Amino acid sequence: MRLLAGVLLGVALLHAQAGAPARPSADSLLNGAQAQAASSQRAVFVIFHASWCGWCRRLDAFLEDPAIKPVIDKYFVKVYFTVQEHEGKQDLNTAGGDELLAKLGGIKQGLPFFAFLDSQGKMLVNTIRLDADGKPLGSIGHPYKPYEVDWFLVMLNKAAPAMTAGEKAAIEHYLRTQEK
After folding, report:
1. Are 116 and 159 in contact (CB under 8 A)?
2. pLDDT at 13
């Protein structure tokens, strides 16, 4: 009887999985974002996150804030990759996401990690802050501390040079006055 129940459960699970839509791979997500960026003359804002990451949720709140979202959407096509999920939630990971994270320099940097790419996929800048000599100082994650906000503003200057002073000021104001 238990064997029959096990077989029936296995068949039900296979049937359920077969009917579930396939999650897009990192390559397909990135290719779609690059195509959209090329057609709209924007850069690609590549964001790596996980369900357990509190700083990732803060970054999401920042990017979705009504004063910030229109500015970000004007200059960037956002694309999210789920990586580094814990046991039991690993099915949430984007296939190929860890490889893309490593390619962009973020495999040991913590989350959130993000980078700005041009529409051809060339990295313009990532969250790894550099000193005056170009030596890496670590990833800023969600910009929170003053030096992290400073680096994020450097990133914006590289990735969206046409961003107006007023738009940058709105972003800077949000980040410097966010709840600590």
Report:
1. yes
2. 39
Give the model confidence (pLDDT) of 90-145 as tens digits.
Answer: 999 999 999 999 999 997 789 999 999 999 999 999 999 999 999 999 999 999 99
User: Residue 5: what pLDDT?
Assistant: 38
Rounded alpha-carbon distances, angstroms, from residue 58 to 25, 87, 170, 178, 180: 25, 23, 17, 10, 11
pLDDT greater than 60 at residue 157? yes
CATH number for the region 23-177 comes to 3.40.30.10
DSSP 8-state assignment for residue 88:
T
Amino acid (one-letter) located at 134: G
How long, in residues, is the chain? 180
Give the Cα separation of 54 and 57 in Å (integer).
5
> Token digits for 180?
């600590």
Number of Cα atoms under 13 Å in the Cβ half of residue 92: 14
The answer to whether 107 and 136 are in contact (CB under 8 A) is no
Both tokens assigned to 130: 């550099």
81 vs 47: CA distance, rounded Å? 6
CB atoms within 10 A of CB 86: 10
The domain locations on the chain are 23-177
